[in-house]
Amino acid sequence: MINAAIVGLGWWGKTLVESVQGSDAIRFVAGATRTVTPEVEEFARTQGFTLRGSFEDLLKDRKVNAVVLATPHSMHVQQIAAAARRRKHVFCEKPLALTKAEATRAVKAVQKKGVTLGLGYNRRLHPTMMDLRERVRNGALGTILHVEGTMSSPNALMLKPEHWRANPEETPCGGLTPMGVHFVDALIDNFGEVEDVYCMSMRRAVQIETDDTTSVLFRMKDGMSGYLVTMMATGGCFRLQVYGSQGWIRYDGVTHVAGASSEERRTRLFGSCTFQPVKGPAETWQADAYDTSRAALEAFARAAEGGPPFPITTQEMIHGAAVTEAIIKSAAAGKTKKVL
User: Fold this and answer.
1) Residue 130: how many CB atoms within 10 A of its CB?
2) Are residues 102 and 128 in the same domain?
């Protein structure tokens, strides 16, 4: 059993804590957050952990084996390095970092001290994504031609200007960091490394200083193409569709919409699924409810205790940050950028 501390108790930090109640692999024994309110204090009491005054206080606690970072990504690398120096395992919410150099720094910090690094691409652990991975690898879809992703949410319509997600330095390219990086991870997991990207990002409907509509073209190193659109000012949706020479497969679901229940955010990410072969009728089915947040945290905890390695490799983490960096640079320059 890993004793963990939660760092950051916004709505997603709370969701992570709720996801592992009753787990035999990980439990939260402490927490820290920048703004302590009566509601946060009540949450900590209800969930059975102690609030500490600062992140540094958590690192000094010998009872804490690991820290879970639900903090803005601009804080991640520094916090990971500090935790590693204290030999604490680290589970970091996505994105790990926005540049390859920063992601590499984080990975080197944990490797130097021999601690485990987990990353919150929880969708990867859903049985639906495992089904896709198997279909791709066993050739059931034939030669892969193209993959498309759509991720949308109305959340930017509700953000106040002072919220950190309203800061374009924290959330470049609108929905890329809160949503789109999940698609980037799915690309890497299923189709390998990305060669180059072209991004257009703009603000159409929101009042805050962040983009609400972002489109990205991808060319993979093996030659296939990809496309992603994220929108932060419309109804919530998630769609992933893969086209192969033997047919296409589509997975529909939801994104994390502000105000949704914790249960929905954790277990209802995928819904209807369709496979249309080149010949014959389409097959349709419904994805199982599955707590991806719990799965990710338990996989991290077991890896930290010497079990199977965390399913996302550090090489994939670094490449994901490199792809994110190239997307941001492409949007700023208005031209294709190679992933370095």
Assistant:
1) 13
2) no
pLDDT tens sequence across 105-130: 999 999 999 999 999 999 999 999 99
Q: Is 288 exposed, middle or buried (0-12, 13-18, 19+ CB in 10 A)?
A: exposed
Q: Which three-class secondary structure state does DSSP give residue 173?
A: coil
Taking the C-alpha atoms of 241, 243, 247 and 252 in order, what is their torsion angle to the nearest 10 degrees? Answer: 0
What is the distance between the alpha carbons of residues 271 and 251, in angstroms, rounded to a whole number?
Answer: 7
pLDDT at 152 over 80: yes
SS3 247: strand
Asked whether 91 and 67 are in contact (CB, 8 A), the reply is yes
Cis peptide before 95 (omega within 30 of 0): yes
Among residues 102, 120, 138, which one ends one of the domains?
A: 120
- How does DSSP classify residue 256? -
DSSP 74: G
Identify the domain boundary among 120, 150, 178: 120
DSSP class per residue in 132-158: HHHHHHTTTT-SEEEEEEEEE-SGGGT
Quick: pLDDT tens for 250-285.
Answer: 999 988 766 678 887 888 899 999 999 999 999 999
Give the residue-averaged pLDDT of 71-99.
Answer: 97
SS3 content of the chain, % helix, strand, coil (to 5): 40, 25, 35
C-alpha closest to that of 4 among 322, 301, 313, 305: 301
* Mean pLDDT on 288-294: 95
Q: Do 74 and 134 fall within a single domain?
A: no
Report the candidate in 220, 134, 145, 148 with the shortest Cα–Cα distance to residue 183. Answer: 148
Beta carbons within 10 angstroms of residue 93's beta carbon: 23
Domain coverage including residue 289: 123-294+321-338
Residue 249 domain-assigned (yes or no): yes
Among candidates 232, 230, 166, 245, which has minimal Cα distance to 200?
230
